[in-house]
Structures are given as structure tokens and as C-alpha cells.
# Entry
Amino acid sequence: MSTTQYRMHSNNTRTMRAVLFDAPGSPSVLYVGEADTPTVKENDVLIHVAATAINRADTLQRKGLYPVPQGESSILGLEAAGEVVGVGAAVTQWKAGDRVMALLGGGGNAEYAVADAGHVLPVPASLDMAAAAAVPEVWLTAFQLLHLVAGGVKPGQSVLVHAGGSGVGTAAVQLVKLAGGRSMVTAGSQQKIDTALSLGAERGVNYKTEDFAAAVAEWTGGKGVDIILDCVGGSYAMKNVASLAIDGRWVLYGLMGGAEVDGPVLGGLLRKRGSLLATTLRSRSREYKAELVKRFREECLEGFKGKEPLLKPIVDSVMEVSEIAAAHQKMEENKNNGKIVLTF
# Structure
């Protein structure tokens, strides 16, 4: 691959701009500096990044609370969209010039990123790069939660989606609707609730002012919901149990409300024959992620196409990568309604 694709320094080291931090801390520790351009292995695709995005995992890693999985880049960023500029020797399905979006184990907040060829998706013509950057991590997470972990959504089944204004939340609402299910969301503002309702949710609850368990009982006629998607954890545990239907599935994928649980949670689960399923995506094997990407491409990617697509990534804001500290601050203050995208 030609080295002219990179900025060259006098020491002939290939370098790129990337989001960096020297020690864990607040958003103010983040800055844009220079890092080595990643090495392309035989099954990798090298992407010239046009847009990337931030996720909760990035804020936790910045704080020193999320160890980087072995073998992954320590640079922040779990997704990116851009143009292929190089491929490994074993890659046949991608070529230079392809417009792609990719699920990453790290390294997305940089000018260049490498992705496993099996973790890459084509960017539909209807999406620009900013919108494409808002797809991989959150849409694949939502798809995984609903279809691989929870076992799928059947027509008419009900799903409670916590953090309904987040990237995962807005994706999950649309995927539930696509599967013929019904959804209710919790969120911290009426604006976020209104967005979820516009995407297909039937009911929205402001968790700051309403009891979501009571709202679930009213919405389901006392039956409870079939599936709960929960990124909050501890502080919601008892209300989640109260909200669960008999044989319901509670899928835990985050701990924004803490890891400690008070009250008879296990007794409640036992009485309802409920399942508590805990999962993360970043630490999964390459093979698992490749199968997830394959299924998502086959079952959902078509939904993003056309002038009136069935599925659409929700972008809260598009910021320059130099605004990385402000982007993290915005996410930590829960001010975003959808994805925060960064451009180079």
C-alpha cells in the first residue's frame, strides 16, 4: 500500500490525528494529537475516517473505568464511517474506494482506523458519512440485545426500552417496530420522549417525574412487558422486576444506575419465571461480531435505503473532532437526543 496515503514526517513514521488523553480524568483531559497509523493485518480493512461517534464506553474508558480489551486499539471510538484505502492480503470483499461503516473494538476517533473485514458494512447511498457513523455500534448493539440475547421479538410482544433518547434506545424502538412488536420508553425529557414516539414507541415516561413501573402496568393492562432493555442497572432493579411479564426477559447491558442491588430482586424474578440476561458487545469474539454484522446486513440494512427509509439513525449533533471534550461533556450530562457524531 502506498505510503503517500499518510502524512509523512522526517523520521518516515506514518502518523495521523487522533483523540488522545495522557491520564484518566474529566472531559478536559482529551485532546487531538498525533498517533501512529494502525497496521493492517491480513483480514483487516483500513478506513480513511470521515466521521466517527462517541459512546458511553468511551466516557468510561476516559475515566479509567473500562479496560481496553486485549488486542484492541487504546484510542477511543467504537465505530467509524469513511472510505477504504487499503485491505489485508486475505480480504476479497472490500476494495479501495468503497464507502463503508464499521464496528470497531477501538480506534475510531482517528483519521485512519482498521476493522476486521467481517465487521464492515456498506454505506447505503441514502446516508451521508455523519449518519453512517451513527449506525454501527448502537444499531448492532440494539439488534444483538433484541434478537441474539433476548431471542427475538415476536409480533405483538411488548418491550420496555430504558434511555429511549440514546443511540441504542432510538435504534431499539425502530427495530421493535420492524419486528412487529410494541415499545415503551423511559427518558429524561419530553423532547427525547417525543423523538421516540415519532419513531414508533407507543408510550413514553419521564423517569424524573413518573413511576415507570406504574406506567408499564397501565400500558400492558397489568400483564407486564415481555422484554426490558436496561442500561441503567442497580437503581432500576426492583421496578424492572415489577414491570416484567411472566416468563419475561430482562436484558442488562449497562450500569449507569450502579452495580449494587437492594431488595428481593431474585425472589421477584423467581415468582415471574423471569430471565436476567447480561451482555456486552465490545469484548465479544471476532467470530461473534462477524455473525452479528452478517445478520444485521441481511435483515436490516435494506431498511436504511430509499427516500422514505423504514430505519434512520438519529443524530443529535455533528461536531468537529477538535470539540471532543465538549462532546464528552454533553453525553455525560445526558443532553444528547441520539448520537453525537465527530467529523475530521
Summary: Confidence is low (pLDDT under 50) at residues 1-13.
